[in-house]
Fold each of these.
Amino acid sequence: MLKAIYPGSFDPVTNGHLDIIRRSAKIVDQLIVGVLNNNAKSPLFSVEERVNMLKEVTKDIENVKIVPFAGLLIEFAKEQGADLVIRGLRAITDFEYELQMSQTNHKLDSSIETMFLTTSIEYSYLSSTSVKEIAVFGGDVSQFVPKIVAVELEQKMK
Ligand code: PNS
């Protein structure tokens, strides 16, 4: 049984994340979406809100579980009995950070591999940061995030 972790901040989950979740869930037997609980990053949404939004938008995917985590990703992966970490790569600008992270994680535990999926072209420009910025200035985010996330963002901005 192949088990993978797809970790991230998901503040909030975008259509780009959801695309990676759907594609990864077809490759592995079980996909755990690990939601980073780190207040030092000052997220817009609490970890509970981020977990709930992810649960809602992945409820039709049978082999996906949403689990919050704090601390080291590699420790969380071991705790969950995962074989793989999956990350999405949007553009060359992501590469350096992702390479460093995967190599560091591999040094910490060489039994856990990192696998990269390239983002679908239609989401290659998309980030949670730009979605939040659009929302802050009252822009329409409906083409970038699932409907319930757009609603939650609108509520937050009130
Ligand atoms: O969506 P993000 O913010 O790009 O996700 C980053 C994340 C959560 C994958 C990364 O910050 C992480 O793994 N944090 C946990 C701490 C850790 O393990 N750090 C060592 C890896 S270099």
Amino acid sequence: MEIKNICCIGAGYVGGPTMAIISYKCPNIQVEVVDNNEDRVNQWNSENFDNLPIYEPGLAKIVKKCRGKNLYFSTSVENSIRKADMIFISVNTPTKKKGIGAGMASDLKWVEACARLVANYAEGHTIVVEKSTIPVRTAEVIKSILEGSDHSTNKIKNSTYEVLSNPEFLAEGTAINDLLYPDRVLIGGENEKAIMSLSNIYSNWVPKEKIIHTNIWSSELAKLTANAFLAQRISSINSVGALCEATGADVREVARAIGSDSRIGSKFLNAGPGFGGSCFKKDILNLVYLSRYFGLPEVADFWEGVVKLNSWHQHRISKLVVQKLFGTVTGKKILILGFAFKANTNDTRESASIKICKDLIEEGALLFIHDPKVSSKQIKADLQIDEDIYLKSKSESQITHAEGGWCAIETITSSIDNADAIVILTEWKEYFDIDWETIATKMRRPAWIFDARSVLKDENISNFGLNFWRVGDGSKNNISNLLEN
Ligand code: NAD
Ligand code: UGA
């Protein structure tokens, strides 16, 4: 079946970039990305390509090339479904907040709503593709909604369906590259013709040997498992980092040593402030829920440990900041560098910065938060604390009397006066080469630099009389102790 019209429901971090690449690589296919969030759609259609709702390197250029030719963003969900030969469901699947499985299971209400929309409006033969990350056996739910929907309506509309699983493996910040040169494309399904229709789209730019076909349940489970394995590596290296700090070892050296074993590999071994992002935690918790549901408590406990370690590690960093600043941060001025969950994205979902900032504000710290791509509106939404916009302009004496607050800052240098500490939480390029000589003259002594991303060079900091802590680096212990005393 040759696909001429694609509809993607969900114009988010996955739907937007994925469809941009399909339209770019398949000029003969009309691609419409639909979303019921009007603001988001308007942003995708904005004349200024700097205002797209998602910041992703290389994305704006591709949207500019394709939008209006064979790539469209719209709120006309029903119309788009009607026209489509293939529909991608790319909506959010967050963790359930209440009811059975609350805090663990994925909330499938958005996926279910999409299946119902497709059942109501699709005409002719439609291939429905699960792009969202979902629990294993969700395809069954989608199928039963599609097929179980009013049979007479299906007959009148002459509707038939095939459901495929095609999970997305892109990472934010590198989405365009990941989509253009994927390690693999995974397609799970039963119907050979439907599988080939989707494979043929990808084979416009992905080598055939990288397009893997599996049964539908393996495909669904492989997505959850891939994220669980990746997150597990981060918790593993962060746990080793804590041990390094306690023993005088350096986690970067340990990572290099173990990563050069080809069976282990060197990627995803960077110690940091703990993994964030919208998916790792929710996908593992989903795996935990499924394991318990299927009567495998040991399996559930194993994976739950990955999330627990991550959470412990994030609190460990905020505690450590407090301890190093003489056990109290009340009224102390701390610059937070980076609020996004990783560099090159404006996404803050589950960012380690949220937890660490909340902890520090709770302790009474005055946070001056910098991020090149995250707005103060977003920071406010994440911290659920109003911005203290007067903080920036308060005189030093007023600041020392204040307790617990935050404000967003545009530049580091304009806000550094009398700061007690800087905490680097996102590895933005611009934090690699800060002018420490100038910074050092402006901070209040003893001043601390906490590098939770290992982006700084030791000598650049210590040479200017600043105390320096780097995640997982126990070799710093002696230097820090000396300076502290
Ligand atoms: P997102 O929240 O950025 O986007 C989802 C969009 O779907 C929203 O704009 C929302 O308005 C829209 N939507 C929800 N229900 C709708 C409906 N009934 N009709 C029309 N629009 C509707 O989410 P995301 O980050 O793009 O993630 C989507 C899925 O992809 C999730 O299952 C996620 O786990 C998975 N995933 C995400 C990433 C990532 O990097 N963010 C990577 C791989 C997989
Ligand atoms: C992750 C996966 O890498 C993607 O394959 C997957 O498609 C996606 O989740 C998803 O399903 O949503 P993403 O969360 O965008 O992608 O970004 P990652 O690069 O995986 O980083 C996740 C978190 O781990 C970030 O907070 C990052 O800073 C942290 N991280 C990553 C480390 O602390 N150390 C590392 O070595 C690597």
